[in-house]
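Re: the pair you flagged

First of the two:
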Amino acid sequence: MWIIRILSSIIFLTSTVVTIPLAFDVGGRACGLAFSLSLASFYFFYSVLRLATPDTSRFRWFLVKSVAATQWIVLPSLLIWSLNRFSVEPTDTRGWVERTFSGKRAEDTSVSQWILGPDGLAEKVTVGAWDKLLTWSTPAFQLSEGFCSLLVIQASGQVTRWLVNRSGKSDSWMIGLLVMSASVISSAVYFLYRVTQFPEISNVDATLIGMAITCAIFLCAWGIGSGKGNPVESSLLFAYIVLCIYQIFTDYQPSGPVGPPQPSEAADFPPFPPIIMASYTTLLQALSLLPSAIHATFNFIVAALSTVTPSVIISLAYRLFVLYASTRIIPAVRDSGARTLSQEPSLEDSDGAGQILGVLSWFSPSILITVYTSLLMQHFASTSNGDSGDWWVSQGGDVGNNLWRWINVAGTMALYALELKLGKEDLDSGVVGHWKAD
């Protein structure tokens, strides 16, 4: 049963990651917003259905299973409907309120067409409200990522401190954790070097990068020197600051012009032994005999994945990881230590914080779609500064800026500095406070 759940989750994540940017790329901005809104609404009502019906009801079991089985038909149907309905973008770049009430009704033949027709009132209100919600929620998602990342960093520091101070193999743990921390810092320095090679970094950007890195190094040294932190916390904090800086500038163009590929000269000897080359040739011939539908499906998947940059996928994966980890860390700090890390948040918790986390876990598919669409809009807005992103601005999108990303960097370091200032060097508190050591 758990294998089916894992496969279902993988298929859901893959289809979501592939179809939403495909709707933006093929149908335009309004098509992508309409498809993500319809998809989020479907999973929202599916979660409400699961919450509203009792667990012991046979009708509830049949209804939930039926809706879950039809989601693989609903998803492509919603995509086709969105491409058919919203693929033609309006040339008017005014807001949805002005486009709806300024003179649109005079061109319609009936009230129903004005409300339900193309570019009607219902379309403008729903898609326009979804657009505003995603735009306004971007700062909240960004700041929540920083807060949850700080929770994960501090929880990791407490666990590693317990391993070194209370376990029987403290020396082995200390050496291993030092090597891991050095590896994390080395990787962060490499990506920081990559950032310095981007061509579009201005003097203001360089100043902000220097200030952020200087503050991060100072906080890392302060934490280790005061004993309130450790190398693992410091390395993870430094890596997160570098990750934020790297995400700010990853939408820039490559540092050098990309020339045409040079033709490769034929080698005197094959790159592999003849038996491997013969097996490779046989495999290619077998693949060429597959039906054309399989080739078309593979080409479609490759083309859909090419519409998303790796920076968006990495940002989505990291943001989901820290949000999910925080739902385990917060109850562990509040209740019974590390035992709570293995328990899912539930609506049956006694306090309000646990119930809120339980609600968020029930509506996780809709939250995933919202977060992913917000990241895609950030990406398209960032690329709109160049010629390749003119289509986003021409369809009513805003030009992106990195203000809230820089605020997230400053806020994360400020919270960590406040924790170092007010915190106490106490091992018997937090996540590992209820662990036992013989």
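Second of the two:
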Amino acid sequence: MSSAPINIASAIQSASIKRHPSPRHDLNPSTAASSKQPVEPASPTSSVASNADSIPESALRPVPRKKTLPPLPDMRFEQSYLASLQGADSYWKIAWITGRDQVFLPLVQGMLWTLLLSGWRYWNRGAQLQGASMGSKVRRWWWGVNDWKIPEDTQEKLSEKAGEFYTAQLGGLD
């Protein structure tokens, strides 16, 4: 016996699945960008007397721009997945393509991205602590050009001042 919630969930899930998708029909559905037409300049309807104060025709009816960029590609996952499945002729190939596209490639991509960010953070932390970052080099150069006094190590000065303060307040605990 199966329970009612499982039957309902199964019915909802199976209703949204296309049983026999067509790669030719479902691969790249038409979009608004694929049916647009370029703008055509309107023909002059009235004759205007030309004088020195009138606006030139080229300003009123500019030449349409050239199409510089192609339409945006369809980046939905379903389209590339159906294109990958087009050459599959067995259930094992379908399982392999699905596992590769849904599990393996996202896992590898996430792992490489995490390693890249971790390496960047490690390198950047070391550069900040050692004062070897590009920003500190530029700052030192700029201060040298302007004959400004480069501040001394503030950590040592701070610890000395703290020690002097506590010695003065507590009178030296000998």
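The longest helix spans residues 91-130.

-B.
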